[in-house]
Amino acid sequence: MGTIHEPGETDIESNKIRQDDLDRKPRKYIGYQEFARYSSLADEYFVLRRYDRLHCRVLITLQQRIAVLEERLDELDEKHSRQTPDVNNGTVRNDQPERQLLVEEIAKELKIYTEMLLSYKELKSAPSAPKGNINNINTWLSNNNYPIEDAEVEFLKAKDLVTVARSQKGLFGLLGERNGPEGTNVYGSDEPVDAIASASVFVVGMVMLIAPLWILAVTHGMFERLGVITAFIAVLLGVLTSATLAKPFEILAATAGYSAVLVVFLQIGNEEA
């Protein structure tokens, strides 16, 4: 006869694991293997520390080590320039062994320093992890009876958490993440969302360009027209802030360009008047 499984049982490597075993020993049966699998499902489930303080500490230390080597090289150059009998300071191939070794050591230290500096610079551009991403991970940990050691998830409380990719806002946040049962998250296909968002942006853009033309054409008085322009600029600023992932200076640049277009509309209206 075949093996009869009780409700709630699953087979893990031919061992019958019951739900109560998973609840009692989550760090044995779930652990990092399931935590890593969960983290790989979506960008919203994966956050890491940037370690700002440690990066700065290491870079400052490396800088000082190189500074000491630089001082030694300067002292060596000055020593050889005053040395008697004369030393050839215009050669690399036949340089003094002491100086050759020092330059090689400097080269190694500079390589480590430069690589770390550039990698940290790139890491600094990574977007900070939204609070919702951190809440997702904490929810998963709670739902699985905390399968990771407490000390090893303390990083979720750090202030320098980053995510591997910027979370999508969707269309004004309406088509992005949605809450499912028991604190889980539900995600739809990205393609319909992208298509709707693109079409919406196109329609909004056309309205924002054409509507002020007609309104300014029937509006009389400088203050009334300035009021119309101000209203449309405020609307555009709100749309760009809530529906895009643009940086503040990019939003201001786009708003300034739109303002310039509306000013041209205003000048045309004044000339016709």
TrEMBL record:
Residues in DUF6594 domain copies: 32-263
Domain of life: Eukaryota
Pfam name, any one: DUF6594
InterPro entries listed in its UniProt record: DUF6594 (IPR046529)
Keywords: Membrane, Transmembrane, Transmembrane helix
Transmembrane residue ranges: 195-219, 226-245, 251-269
PANTHER family per UniProt: DUF6594 DOMAIN-CONTAINING PROTEIN, DUF6594 DOMAIN-CONTAINING PROTEIN-RELATED
Protein name: DUF6594 domain-containing protein
Organism: Apiospora hydei
